[in-house]
């Protein structure tokens, strides 16, 4: 009886041992399989990160479900990346073509307009009509209108080219820490003539403060804002540029006492081609402020606006100091 019980116990022990060995073996097998899968996935990710991922490196039939999903994801991502790069290259080519193909026709229109204007003035002088006649004056006005509209077209095309290059990463801002005075001097130099022409007092402060910025593009952005201020400030008004340092940012204020911007429109003015109803009859195409925001944002800065109708507007540009 005891021998039989012992036999049963031994058999059960053997069975339990076998089961344990099977379980342990299965555990080891699964662990190795998971480790192999993780290594395979890691290899895929590493090759994708260093740009060497290619479809032929991985055999779909040998992959697990997770590996297969990862393989498909990386393959599709590589395809999307390649397609995006090709599209970006096409956009760059298109932008360059537009820029080059429009320069000569616009320049020719401006040149012929000037020649036509000079010719018309000579005819007026030779005809001994100091006051001219209606037809002469009308012709000169029409020529002036052609030149003005051509100038606007040139500005619009150049602005769109700049925007497209910025948005598609074709042009990048190259920031460095420098004194802001060079930017202030450039703004004053470029915009003083327009201010004098409109009989607007234009005040630009001097500053020894420093910030991190791309000089060329920052001047472009601030000139667009100043131009906007001069455009909507009446004769006898004032536009000023001042600088105020903060701990993290350097603030540049462009202030005017012009017509102001309605509160409900202040969030819209940085939208491309946006034109307020109250200035729809004024010159402009609605890209200056949008371009300014894109440039400042690319430098990790930002722009704020405060305005009251019939009191004026202040655009505050914030640039990182470090």
Automatic annotation (TrEMBL):
Its EC number is 2.7.13.3. Pfam families: HATPase_c (PF02518), HisKA (PF00512). The keyword DNA-binding does not apply. Residues 97-322 form the Histidine kinase domain. PROSITE patterns: HIS_KIN. It catalyses: ATP + protein L-histidine = ADP + protein N-phospho-L-histidine. It comes from the Bacteria. The keyword Transmembrane helix applies. Keywords: Kinase, Membrane, Phosphoprotein, Transferase, Transmembrane, Transmembrane helix, Two-component regulatory system. The chain crosses the membrane at residues 6-29. One of its GO terms (molecular function) is phosphorelay sensor kinase activity. This is histidine kinase. It comes from Anaeromicropila herbilytica.
